[in-house]
Design a protein that fits this description.
single chain; 500 residues; mainly alpha; Growth Hormone, Chain: A; two-stranded parallel sheet; 19 helices; 77% helix; globular
């Protein structure tokens, strides 16, 4: 594909039908829902897990282990799906996930639970990649935008439902229920997978890049662990973070060298280095950073800076999570009707930059009843990018590399989310520490105790603390706007502008 090409021709112009929707969408929606919700449902259950199993200092690994394993698994399943058939690999991923759910539910120690979460991530990472690739395999190109809008909606909704459902299940049924509830859903997903058609190409010969997998794992695991250390903004953890980043950098150099020499590379460097592909994946990374950082830090802003309860913060967040889905679905339909792809985020993402910048400067002066409207507008225009990314990369990949294409987007989005959230966290806490170390310590107490942490302070000191925290959040929000601005630049620079 030339970097100067402006159009991409669809190779299967047949429109989608209602029968196609009901045969394809449920079979790919439920696996994607499972993979997404498994990453977030444990958040509210972590304290209960630590109380029951001990080793409180390791409880964060229940989340990190899943993220690391899912990120590593994404390109592996993409490669295996291209070679052996995506329907077949969907059965494998769902079976792995089902076993992992049972093991998590039966865990008797923190080490056991973390190991089971690694297995769960291996299954979940495969489901995310295979679901996206199956859309490309089963749906005519012109209709893929609409389906990608649906898929983006499922992803956002499941990410939102996860923490709420996890909290409710933990409170009423205990922490093990957050895993047991996934068992019948995984069984149902296996049944629905039988409805998918077998790959028209049939299984091919498998030439697997085992060295590439090892080097990829050696790159991803230390990098994500380093980012987890960086987010603590603790000088004592910086040497460990620097060492982990050095290991990740060395592994990346060796990985790129291996992938250029491998006969069947895990990461097809030639494909990923195409101008349209790397720009699209980079836009996916920017949107991952923008969305996840926003969803992560807005509730903290409500609780710490505005004194809301966690439940009130959840209600105020609803427009942000709901309208991302609406924006994605509208964008998908626009792609199907007009064939235009990059033109949509080229308009939408600059609006996101303006809106987040407005949030940064105007949030302290807006009421709690006004902020959800601004957050909803941000979400609506963020939705203009998500379907475009998958449709563009899948069209460039062709039928034989759909798995690699879907994996590259999933990998880019995950890395962008991890890096972006870490950077925004560093900006927030570094700004507080530089302004007033006492306020930085008080910020941590506010996150744990809410407004009660301010008891005993006089009114003048409380006003100063509120002002300093508002300034720190302004810097954090401007950092998020920076990610969106970079995404807008990439959208404008994409050489592929439409499907014809």
């Amino acid at each position: 594909m030339s970097s100067h090409s402006l159009e991409l021709t669809a190779d299967a112009p047949a429109p989608s039908s209602r029968a196609l929707f009901f045969s394809v969408f449920p079979s790919i929606m439920l696996p994607m829902f499972l993979a997404s919700v498994d990453g977030t449902i444990v958040a509210a259950a972590l304290p209960a897990m630590a109380g029951a199993l001990g080793e409180v200092e390791r409880v964060s690994w229940v989340v990190v282990a899943y993220l690391v394993a899912a990120t590593i698994a994404a390109p592996v399943y993409g490669r295996l799906g291209d070679a052996l058939g995506r329907r077949r690999m969907m059965f494998v991923a769902l079976s792995v996930l089902l076993v992992a759910h049972v093991l998590c539910m039966l865990a008797t120690s923190m080490t056991f639970l973390i190991a089971a979460r690694v297995l769960q991530g291996i299954g979940g990472g495969g489901l995310m990649t295979l679901s996206q690739a199956l859309v490309g395999e089963s749906v005519p190109p012109r209709e893929r935008g609409r389906y990608q809008g649906y898929m983006a909606s499922v992803f956002v909704c499941s990410s939102t439902v996860g923490p709420v459902a996890g909290g409710w299940l933990t409170q009423h049924l205990g922490w093990r229920s957050v895993f047991s509830v996934g068992i019948p859903l995984a069984v149902l997903a296996i049944g629905l997978t039988f409805r998918l058609k077998k790959s028209p190409h049939g299984p091919g010969r498998l030439h697997f890049d085992f060295i590439g997998v090892v080097l990829f794992a050696a790159f991803i695991a230390p990098m994500l662990m380093a980012l987890e250390q960086v987010q603590r903004v603790n000088l004592a953890s910086m040497p460990l973070a620097a060492g982990l980043l050095a290991v990740a950098a060395l592994a990346l150099v060796l990985l790129l060298r291996q992938e250029r020499r491998a006969a069947a590379p895990l990461l097809p460097v030639a494909f990923l280095s195409q101008s349209a592909v790397w720009r699209t994946d980079a836009m996916a990374a920017c949107m991952g950073a923008t969305l996840v950082a926003t969803i992560t830090f807005i509730p903290i802003y409500f609780i710490v800076a505005r004194g809301t309860t966690p439940s009130e913060a959840g209600v105020l967040m609803l427009p942000l999570t709901a309208l991302i889905a609406v924006g994605s679905m509208v964008t998908g339909r626009l792609i199907s009707k007009t064939g235009r792809t990059a033109a949509i985020p080229s308009v939408g993402l600059p609006v996101v930059v303006v809106l987040i910048t407005t949030l940064a400067f105007a949030a302290p002066y807006m009421s709690l009843s006004q902020l959800p409207f601004l957050l909803g507008a941000i979400a609506l225009f963020c939705g203009t990018a998500m379907p475009v990314v998958q449709v563009t990369v899948q069209m460039l990949a062709g039928a034989k590399q759909l798995g690699a294409a879907a994996a590259s987007v999933q990998f880019s989005r995950s890395i962008g989310a991890a890096v972006g959230t870490a950077i925004v966290g560093v900006v927030l806490f570094a700004t507080l520490a530089a302004t007033d170390p006492e306020t930085a310590h008080l910020f941590a107490r506010l996150m744990e105790q809410g407004p009660a942490a301010l008891a005993g302070l006089d009114a003048a000191r409380i006003a100063v603390v509120r002002h300093e925290i508002a300034d720190a959040f302004r810097s954090a929000f401007l950092s998020i706007a920076g990610f969106a601005a970079l995404g807008a630049v990439l959208a404008w620079s994409l050489p592929v502008r439409r499907i014809t």
